[in-house]
Amino acid sequence: MKLRQLGKSGPQVSEIGLGCMSMSGMYGPADRKESIATIHAALDAGITLLDTGDFYGMGHNEMLIGEAIKDIPRDKFLVSVKFGAMRDPGGNWGSYDARPAAMKNFLAYTLQRLGLDHVDIYRPARLDPAVPVEETIGAVAEMVQAGYVRHIGLSEVGPETIRRAASVHPISDLQIEYSLISRGIEDKILPACRELGIGITAYGVLARGLISGHWQGAKGPGDFRVRSPRFQEGNVERNLALVETLREIAASKGASVAQLAIAWVAAQGDDIVPLVGARRRDRLSEALGALDLALMPDDLAAIEQAVPKGAAAGARYDPKQMAVLDSKKPGLGES
User: Fold this and answer.
1) Predicted model pTM
2) Are 169 and 186 within 8 A, CB to CB?
3) Helices (H), ranges, the chain
4) For each successive 10 residues of the chain (335 residues), what is the average pLDDT?
5) Would you list the domain boundaries of the chain?
6) What are the GO cellular component annotations (predicted)?
7) Which of 60, 72, 152, 221 supports an S-S bond with 24, CB 3.0-4.6 Å?
């Protein structure tokens, strides 16, 4: 497993990371034993970066990771945690809370659930419109000084917020959706990160399974994709047609659609680390195969022709969620 540097100030991590969200019900039920086995398989394969959020399954995901890593040497993995998203007992989503006092409370619970004495990368999940980002990052910086956090990251914010945050403390990476059908960061966000020496951890590289080549429909009312515009009737058919054009290119390379899509993200720069959301060992094994797939200029040109920028039908979130994305302010690129 090769390593990539997360920005000028961040750690070295494996060239692909494991996003653990889907192990806690966001895409329908998951098998606990298989989830833990998948985390172990990822670590055995050399993956060092495990990504989670304290609100995934209302703490379930952190406890799951904590169980998986309890006997693993601490220098064999890094944990990236998002905080701030509010939920109610029914699992519904509320606002975001990035007040310094709230952050310290969230962090205390995170460390307890993970069974760790520090988080490797800690980041607000979204921009809290009621709290200046300088206040939030300044408070996390205090946790760095205290030893509870090693590096500070950001998630789904635009260039102005990135610059303001970086003026307070070095930022290791921006976590943001990036895939063949979600390329809005290329316009202004990615150039700003590169100017400032901030890495990218890219989630949604398979567009939540849409361009995995294995799409079989949402898994019931608990599945986030039931409400996602890209998976609605009329849109999903158009998007799956794009997948079929990718399947032909993948076949010519002896690869799967998922491997081609992951390799494309990885090929966009050494400062980008794709996060794969595998929750089963067979899907993890397929994703790891992307690391052996070398895309030549002709391959990249063929992919661009098959899935041109802006080709996706539907936004990546519903209007309510899109409205709170600082990374989607007017003028910052496509959905």
Assistant:
1) 0.91
2) no
3) 32-44, 60-69, 100-114, 133-146, 159-166, 189-196, 235-252, 257-266, 281-288, 297-306, 319-323
4) 96 98 86 97 98 96 98 97 94 92 98 98 96 98 98 97 98 96 94 98 88 66 68 78 87 94 97 96 96 95 90 70 72 58
5) 3-328
6) cytoplasm
7) 60
